[in-house]
Structures are given as C-alpha cells and as structure tokens.
Amino acid sequence: MASLLKRVYTAFNPPIVPKSTSVKPLKFGILGAANIGPLALIVPAKSHPEVVIYAVAARNLAKAQAYAKKHGIEKAYEGYQAMLDDPEVDVVYNALPNALHYEWTMKALLAGKHVLNEKPFSDTAEEAREMFALAEKKGVVLVEAFHYRFHPAAKRAKEIIESGEIGTVKEVSVDLMLSGGSIPEGDIRYEYSLGGGAFMDLGSYVMNSIRYFSSSNPTSVEEASYEAYQPRAATSDYIKNVDRRMEVKLKLGGIKATGRCDLSMPNIFGIIPRFPQIRVLVQGDKGSVDFFNFVLPTVYHSITVKTEGGKKRVEKVYKAKEGKGDEWWTTWRFQLEAVVDHLRGRETDVWITKEDSIANMEWIENVYEKSGLGRRPRPEPVIVSESQPAPVADDPPTQS
Ligand SMILES: NC(=O)C1=CN([C@@H]2O[C@H](COP(=O)(O)OP(=O)(O)OC[C@H]3O[C@@H](n4cnc5c(N)ncnc54)[C@H](OP(=O)(O)O)[C@@H]3O)[C@@H](O)[C@H]2O)C=CC1
Ligand SMILES: O=C1OC[C@@H](O)[C@H](O)[C@H]1O
C-alpha cells in the first residue's frame, strides 16, 4: 500500500528536472486549454529535460492566459492559428474535441509543426489518411497519443501472448466501462458534431487494444449494438446519434473478439455507482492472459497468466527491466519519452504507426456503420494549397 501511494503521489508530483543545456529543448504548444493537458503533457514534461511547454491557445484569450498562468506556460494565444504561426513552437499537442483533430492537425502540419494528436485520431479514416499524407509531404512527425501502448505493462502482456505460452489466440475481450456520472452532461463526448460517442472515445481504446493484443486487424464486424445517450435536457440529435454504450463482436480471421465500452454505466438501483471495468482478456488454446487496468497501469494493474494444468501467476510491470523509466512514470510520461526520442532520431521500442492509426479509424467507422448510427460526420476538407486539395495516402493499411 505504501509503495502504491508513493508511486501515485510521485506520478502526479514528479521531480522537476532542469532543462537540458546541451540540446535545445523542444517547445510544445497545446491546442485548446484542454482538461487532459496537465495529465497527458504538462505534468510529464516536468521530469523531461528536453521538453518545455511553451504555449497554449484557446478560443478565448482570458482562458488561454488563465491556463498559461496556472501551468507556468510562457505564451498564451487567442485563436489556434495564432499559436501555429509562432515559429518557436516545435511540436503541437492537439487536445481538441475529436471532430477538430483533422482540421487543426492539418493546419499545424501546414505550419511545419510535428503533431502529437489525441485519440481517436479523427472522425473518419479518410481524414486520417489525409493527415498522414500531409505529414509525409511536410517531412514532420505525426503520431496518435495512444499512451497506454507506451507503458511496459502493455508491452509485457503482449510479449507473454506472443511467446506462445497461452497457445494460439482464440478470443479477445476488452471492457472499458466507466462508473455512472464519470462523464458529466454537456461533455464533448456526448456531442455528435464534436465527434462524440462512447465508441469514438472509449471504443477507440477497445478497438486499438483488440488489434494490438491479437496482432491482427478485424476482418468483419459481426454485431454492434448501442444504448443511446439520453441527457436530462434532451435534444433529438443527441439521442439519435450518440452512443453512451456500445458492445461489439468482431472477427479477426480465426480470432473472435468482444468489446464493450460505456461512458457512464447506470447506477445500481439508480444510486450505487458500479465499479469501472477496465480489462483485456486474451484466451488462447493453452491458457489466458488477463490484463487488469491496461489504461491506467501506473496506479495499479495486474497481468494474470493461466496456463495448462491450472498453473497461475500474476505479473506487475511498473518499470521495464531494461530501458528507460521509473515505477512512477505514467503512460503519458512513457509516451512523451518516446515522442521526444523519435523526434531526436533516437530508437524507441514502441511507436504508433500511420497504418495502425488509420486501421483503427477504419474499424471504428465500420462499427458505427454496423450499429446503424452511421459514421461520424466528416468536416470540411482542409485545402493544402489554393490549387491542390489535401493529398490522400495511397496505401491502405493491412496490419497493426
Ligand atoms: N490520452 C488521454 O488519456 C485522453 C485523451 N483525451 C482526448 O483529448 C481530447 C480532449 O479531451 P478533453 O481534454 O477531455 O476535452 P475538453 O472538454 O477539455 O476540450 C478540449 C478543448 O476543446 C476546445 N474546444 C474547441 N471547440 C470546442 C467546442 N465547440 N466545444 C467544446 N470545446 C471546444 C476547448 O478549447 P478552448 O480552450 O479553446 O475553449 C477545450 O479546451 C479528446 O480528443 C479526447 O478524446 C481525453 C482524455 C484522456
Ligand atoms: O483515458 C481516457 O479515459 C476517459 C475517457 O473519457 C478519455 O477520453 C480517455 O482518453
């Protein structure tokens, strides 16, 4: 218990390291005075010698200034383009609502910035292809912030699965279901026009982890059923288009997968919140791997391995035996390390590839099609130049 408390305390109050004087630290700018900013980037940057959180942009100057003051950020911009026009910004963190990932990442790429783009990557796979094509054209790095993948526990769980210890993978099931009230009314996640929906938000992890831990892409969506979001002050649009919960059954060649996500599970008897369900279970023909809390492993996680003859062991990997990191490093801290290493041309053992992000969006789209809710709306295309529309990548993804 003491080690858990120490780990969690240090994760959120990390040691502040001096910034490097031997290499010029990378200057990050945040698009949106976003709620996720501190957890995903600002706090992790405190212990990274090569990162400075230099700027934040908000639609409203006062909001940007208040955020900058609170987090010790040098520059506050009114309007997102103003920050993109600042030549000092090296890397843009796009933490805008899902429906704005495409537009503002495209604009950041056009400005020659590297981009760390939040999940889900975009509203549609077509946008994702355009975004990567533009990044390639501009010669900059674009990567999706699937932070859980950078943690050594995720790597270890996959290593066990791939070692053959549990035999051939037959079934994967992923649950990512939050307690009632976790996502409050009015949140961007419930807003169709902002790319809302349980399967866009939590489902993007569900799809990603099914694909990641099975090392396969889906071949079909067999079933996709949803429960609509029903706000107290309902508008017909919300109820029609936005899933509060989604359950999917997929096939990935010979592997069956089930994914369930819920932004706000109904309380028991209307008053008692349900415990969040965050787990990946991979069933092989010789055993299973049950990875509990794959999204927030730094707080606590377990990897339970069952093999033939009823043998069982539990592994916990807060820090890799080899490689960088500390027990208190969050998924976002590991992610930041990899992003910086990648930008510096240093080797990273984990990366989220273009093919991976595009495939994830394709299958999220297919789930929405199958559910009857239909794909999320595609925003207006960003024109790359007056004479030329945005380029489209020509190689459709196959494997993650
Ligand atoms: N990697 C992770 O662990 C997590 C990732 N996310 C992802 O990060 C993104 C942001 O999530 P979160 O921080 O919770 O979101 P917020 O509700 O904090 O919204 C982010 C920003 O969106 C801006 N915004 C622009 N247009 C609108 C609009 N029409 N309505 C509302 N907000 C608008 C606001 O910027 P302004 O300041 O300009 O007003 C706001 O600061 C999402 O894509 C989400 O999926 C979220 C949580 C965890
Ligand atoms: O990590 C997360 O947990 C809560 C979600 O709603 C959020 O968007 C996601 O990224």
Summarize the structure.
This protein is 32% helix and 24% strand.
The span between the termini is: 37 Å
Reading off the top of the CATH hierarchy, the class of the largest domain is best stated as Alpha Beta
User: What is the averaged pLDDT score?
Assistant: 94
Q: Look up the CATH topology of the largest domain.
A: Dihydrodipicolinate Reductase, domain 2
What is the tally of beta strands?
16
- List unreliable stretches of 5+ residues: 393-400
- Give the CA-based shape: globular
**Could you tell me the radius of gyration in angstroms?**
21 Å
Question: What's the tally of helices?
Answer: 11
Largest sheet: 8 strands, mixed
Helix content: 25-40%
Give the SSE order as H and E letters: HEHEHEHEHEHEHEHEHEEEEEEHHEE
**Name of the CATH superfamily of the largest domain:** Dihydrodipicolinate Reductase, domain 2
How many domains?
A: 2
Just name the CATH architecture of the largest domain. Answer: 2-Layer Sandwich
